Amino acid sequence: SLLRQVWRNLVGNAVKYTGRAAEPQIRIYADSDDREIRYHIRDNGAGFDSRFTHKLFNVFQRLHTAEEFPGNGVGLAIVARVVERHGGRIWAEGEPGRGAEFHFALPRPATEE
After folding, report:
1. Which residue, 10, 16, 50, 89, has most beta carbons within 10 Å?
2. What is the model's pLDDT at position 63?
3. CA distance linking residue 99 with residue 44, whole number of Å
4. pLDDT at 35 (0 to 100)
5. Helix residue ranges, H only, 18-101
6. In what order do the strands lie in the sheet with 26-32?
7. Which residues of the chain have pLDDT under 50?
8. What pTM value is reported for the model?
9. Among candidates 91, 6, 92, 101, which has minimal Cα distance to 44?
10. Cα 80 from Cα 77, distance rounded (Å)
């Protein structure tokens, strides 16, 4: 149920921040290797200045005003906590006016031999 919250927050943010795009696009995809499965959510929305990426996953840190986009500034902090609690990692890239891409990786489950 916690990982469902990760998806709700990340996809919800993609929808929210593409709301003003002339032709909103959201792409969700995954890839993997021997160690982890990586998930990616890319949009062509408002984006953010990558110089402030370190603030994204902290409580009450917003890169856009509440007037521009509603929210309380805790969603990405919750996402980071859940991903880290599951032994994973999270990161993001963005460019103002050109969209954002959020990534999270979770360790591959151990296989029985």
Report:
1. 10
2. 52
3. 4
4. 95
5. 75-85
6. 26-32, 36-43, 99-107, 89-95
7. 60, 69
8. 0.83
9. 101
10. 5
